[in-house]
Amino acid sequence: MWLVVMFDLPVLTKAQRRAAAKFRQWLLDEGWEMSQFSVYLRFCAGKEQAEARIRAVGKQVPAEGKVHVLSVTDRQFEAMAVFRGDGKRRRGKPPPNQLELF
Q1: Which of 33, 44, 74, 93 is deepest in the core (most CB within 10 A)?
Q2: Percent of the chain with pLDDT strictly greater than 70
Q3: Residues 6 or more apart in contact with residue 96 via CB below 8 angstroms
Q4: Nearest CA-CA partner of 6 in 87, 61, 80, 79
Q5: 2-91 maps to which CATH number?
Q6: What is the mean pLDDT of residues 26-35?
Q7: What is the reported pLDDT for 86?
Q8: Mind listing the pLDDT tens digit for each residue in 41-83?
Q9: Residue with the larger pLDDT of the pair 38 and 95
Q10: Which residues does residue 66 pair with via DSSP β-bridges, in sequence order?
Q11: CB atoms within 10 A of CB 42
């Protein structure tokens, strides 16, 4: 399962810019991958982990911020069309391999 965080944060004042930068940095520190400037992705091994990540994001939302979290299955994520500046269409990446511990 993948989580997609999409957000719109105000950046009119210095304090708002600082809060937006702090939120973005928190996402990176927590292992989220930047897809676009206001869109971040994270793989979760299951629904429980996804719910925990969603709650954690909710606690970090800056005042006046608007954040959406979308849950996407592995199959839906792999079917995503990705376009870059060269005009070539790419597919979404597969989920990471899980580590086996003995």
Answers
A1: 44
A2: 86
A3: 43
A4: 61
A5: 3.30.70.240
A6: 96
A7: 78
A8: 999 999 999 999 999 999 999 989 999 999 999 999 988 888 8
A9: 38
A10: 8
A11: 19
In sequence order, what are the residues at sequence separation of 6 or more whose Cβ sits closer than 8 angstroms to the Cβ of residue 19? Answer: 9, 62, 63, 65
Residue 89 DSSP code: E
Domain edges within the chain: 2-91
Question: How far is Cα 33 from Cα 44, in angstroms, rounded to an integer?
Answer: 12
Bridge partners (DSSP) listed for residue 2: 43, 72
Strands 81-83 and 89-91, by their bridges, are antiparallel
Residue 86 DSSP code: T
- In sequence order, the β-bridge partners of residue 43 are 2
Q: How far is CA 21 from the centre of its chain?
A: 15
The amino acid occupying position 13 is T
Which DSSP string corresponds to 5-50? Answer: EEEE---SSHHHHHHHHHHHHHHHHTT-EEEETTEEEEE-SSHHHH
**Torsions phi, psi for 87 (to 5 deg):** 85, -5
Phi–psi pair at 82, nearest 5 degrees: -120, 125
The structure tokens listed for 67 are 């954040």
The tokens for 45 are: 């091994």
